[in-house]
Amino acid sequence: MARILHTADWQIGRQYSRFASEDAVALSEARFSVVERIASLANEEHVDLILVAGDVFDAQMVSDRTIRRLFNATQGFSGRWIMLPGNHDAALAESVWSRATRMGAVPENVTLMLEPGVWVDRHLGISVLAAPLTQRQTYQDLTEWFDTAETAPDLLRVGLAHGSVQGLLAEDIDSPNPIAADRAQRANLDYLALGDWHGLKQINERTFYSGTPEPERFKDNGAGQVLLVDIESPGQPPKVQSRHVGQYHWLQWSEVLSVATDVDRLLESIAALPVNAVLNLSLRGQVDLSSQQRLLEALAVAEARHRSVQCDLANLRLEPTEDDIAALKADGYVSEVISDLRQQESEVARDALVILAGLLREKNQEHLA
Amino acid sequence: MKLTSLRVEQFRQFRQPAEVRDLQPGINLFTGPNESGKSTLVRAIRAAFLERFKSSSVDDLQPWGDSAAAPSVELEFEWQGERWHLNKSFLRHKRCDLQVGSRAFNGEEAEEQLSALLGYGFPGRGASRAENWGIPGLLWVEQGSGQELNEAVSYAGDHLQSALGGSLGELASSAGDELINAVERERNKLRTAGTGRPTGDLARANQQAEELQQRQRELQEKSAAYRQQVDRLGSLLRDREQDQARPWEAFRQQAAEAQQRFHEVQGWLDEQRREQESLQQIEQHYELCQQHLQASLRLQGQLILRQQAAEQTGRTVQTKQAEEKPLQEQLDRAREACQLAREQLSVARRQAQRRALLAELAALEQRLSEADQKLEQARDYQQQLLHLREQHQALALDEAQLQRLRQLVSELERVQIMREAVATRLRYELLPGQSFTLGEEVLSGEAERLLLSPVSIEIQGLGRLQISPGGEDLVELDLRQQQLLDDQASVCGLLRVSSLAEAVQRADQGSRLTEDIARLELRLEQVAPEGMGPLSDTLALGAISRSHLLQQIELIPEELLEAGLTLEQAEERQQQAIQALNEADRAVSEHRIEASSCIQKLHSAQDELQRLQEEINAPDRQERERALQAQLVQLQADQQRLMQALAQRQQQIENARPDILAQDIQRLNDSAKALEEAANQRSLEIARLQSSLEALGAQGLDEELAIVGQELAAAHKRQSELTRRAEALELLLNLLKNKRHALTQRLQAPLQRHLNRYLQLLFPQAQLSVNDQLIPTQLLRMVNGVAQYGEVDALSFGAREQMGLISRLAYADLLQEAGKPTLIILDDALVHSDQSRLAQMKRVLFDAAQRHQILLFTCHPENWRDLGVVPRDIESLQVKG
What we know:
Radius of gyration of chain B: 84 Å
Largest sheet of chain A: 6 strands, mixed
Strand content of chain A: 25-35%
Mean pLDDT of chain A: 86
Number of helices of chain A: 9
Distance between the termini of chain B: 32 Å
Low-confidence stretches of chain B: none
Helix content of chain A: 25-40%
Distance between the termini of chain A: 77 Å
Number of strands of chain A: 17
Oligomer: heterodimer
């Protein structure tokens, strides 16, 4: 009986260009802290072995500090880690791995599978067949040799690979790093731990993608989890369960606004979000001037409260009502300008109207004061 | 608004109270001389409204020199059915009371009421200044400032706009300009006002994006280079694995084998070289033998040739000797011909000399005969001259004597006349047959006689009559006549003539002779200009020359010459003869030289022939030739043998291909070297790449690239946000400005209408245009049917004053339409207008007075009599008692 923790696609060193720099730093940081959480989860769950199925690093040329921090983060778990180079961190002639080794940053309990081969631990009763990427991309199935690889029959036979399972994922017809869908069966594997697909995905009874433990996209595909794999003995089907380890909730909302109460409802939903939300909001439809004002204010508050709130208002039309206009107390030709701007369709006209409304509101407030 | 009454006290000219009552709604005309108080009244109205009652800078309101005075103004006007009563006093008693209907206002509150009503402001401190005057500044025209409009309009601008705002309903904006300024300020923060170039935050955002993009490109290049190096390293490492087997050793082995084979072939080549050398020696020997044999054959041939040459030369000598005789004969003939030509030339020369002498002689004879003739003629002329001179001598008269004779004769005639005049005149007419005797003379018939001396007349039958003429003059005249006659006789005797007539005739003959003599002398001069002596000399010398010539001719006998042969021809012939002689001579000598050289050749040919014959006939020659023949046969056999051996050797060498063998050695050695070198290079490159990659990898390029990418995205976002904002601001600014402009134009329209209404009275069909500030700028007039544009500022002083007044009246109309009060005050207006313009302007004023109250002050009452109102005399305003 062995308990294996299967994870992949840590993408350490990833930067988030679409976020404000402060948010981006926090999200980048979360990729380290999730490793720490994985380590403590492994302790809690008495895991025998952790398999990392590729793309530990997001790029080859990350800083020395990043390399050291990553390996430090693994030290919460004193058991064996087996790491596999993926397409982002392929074991090239010179790679992030060779640097880490040179630096002496790789702890004793971390094994790097830089060449295809079998790792055996008689004590744990496991042999791991690893198929690392030694080129950035390849069009041959690197796991093919699993079929003929010999291992002791009393040991569990576990495969570790990084790539696209052929014929199952919609976009992978010609994708690089192919892996045969029936590899586990053909190679007589007890379990095949895969990386590359960032969501959690089961391919068959013995083949799984664990997905990335910390989400970094708005795709709602089960990212943010790791897999606990229990195998009784060779040949027995594995018992696979997921654990949530991710820190941030990545949400993508697309809303259509048409009346003022729509805005209210949206604002309520936003207010109900957890603090560690990363929200991408895309609004369409139309709002009046006062609703827009409220919306902008509420978004400003939400931005301060949540990890990140991004809002795309490009398709949201500003439609000031007569009341809005009356509230601006514009007279004479200024009111003519307002009605002109209201009739114009262009984005720049809407911007101009917002600016004008702002100036008028300011002025009215001065007058009141 | 209608001002109804005005009262002032202790106010400049008016120390005593002065009062105006019953002001009329239209024109009110105030007249009075200078210093009578017109301007004081105007000042009072202005002070009542425009000056703060608290102001301490208005001491000009006090009567001159009276600093204790409290100037006060009290006035009353009606506005919208209400009566406004203002009582304001300054300086000593600062006070302001305003009663509006039943409401009362005091102090500053009262002043604010008035300023709001009329549309003006107050200064922060001090006396009111033009910029505070607002609408009154426009409608209340001070003395001498009627033409200045721009400032007044600009100061009234705000009041006008706000006053007119009401009439234009919602169009005017209470905050428009402020808004425009705010938008413009915001726009200018992002884009420059002039060119629209990005500035401020936008420029910085652009700059930042640019810089980040640059940085990103650099990093991407570095990163790509890194990846390329990694790939290179990978392939190098794979190659190095193959190097472990040392593949260059095999090439080295092959090269050594090839080298050995090459040495073997080298041995063959040496053998071949030696055989070729002995073949060469045999061939040389063979050659030598043949040369000896051929030399012997050549001697025979030479002998025949020599014999032929000697015979040929002998024949040539004979021919030459035969040719000499005709050449010699030709030379002799030429010599003779030359002699003959020389002689003929000599004769020709002599005959030519003789002919020349004969011609000279003939010419001499001619000259001599001419000289002889001339001498003869000269002698003849000399003879005639002598004769004529003698005649002339005989006839010669003394000119003085002749003159005297002429005088005497004329004197005589005069005396005779005088005598006849004095004489007694005896006239008689006798009967036929009757006579008488006068003295001795018997007279009859009819005649007259002058009686000069006593005479007796005897008449037959009668007796004697003695008549004695009276007077002594007669006697004197007789004496004078007698003396003259004597003188005459004496002169005639001297001249040897009987009378004057004869003397004159002789004088005429003398002068004719003188002319003949002169003519003859001239002829003689022509014939012998230098006298006859030289002529005779010429003749004598000519005779001598002739005898000399004759002697010379005598010496040259006449000789006969070939007919027609001239001297030149003779000379030519001699030349030709000499030339022919020379040629013949040269031919002979050349021939002689040739002949002797031929003889020389003949001798040497015979000698050579002799020598050859001796050599051929030498005794050991035959034997030597035979030995040579035998040696030749032997040599030919040796040569044959060697050539066969060489051919076999050549075949052997060619089969071994020593050149290719050498190439093989080179190639194999080079390959081995190259492989080893490449392996070494690879090792070096691997080391180099590894250290370079280690260094590069430590830079964390990908991470930095990701960070830069993130910053760039942020910069782009900011850039686009700012650009959008700038564009929105630009749009907003343009819209606001356009709308404001449109509004201004709407405001202008009614003003334009009022302006043109007045203008028509002054200039039919004219138009006055106004600018954004509502100031008239351009005047369009029709002059003789042609439109003429003119800037208002460029008009004459008088015309500008008229335009100014028209504009002010138009503003008043505009204000009235907007429901604002209007009061027009003109202090000494239109003093620069001529009579006709003034007349038109009066129509304008009268028209305006239908709608507005106008206070008109003037010191020229005669100009304003036709305004239809009774003028008020300022001086009569003083309140009596």
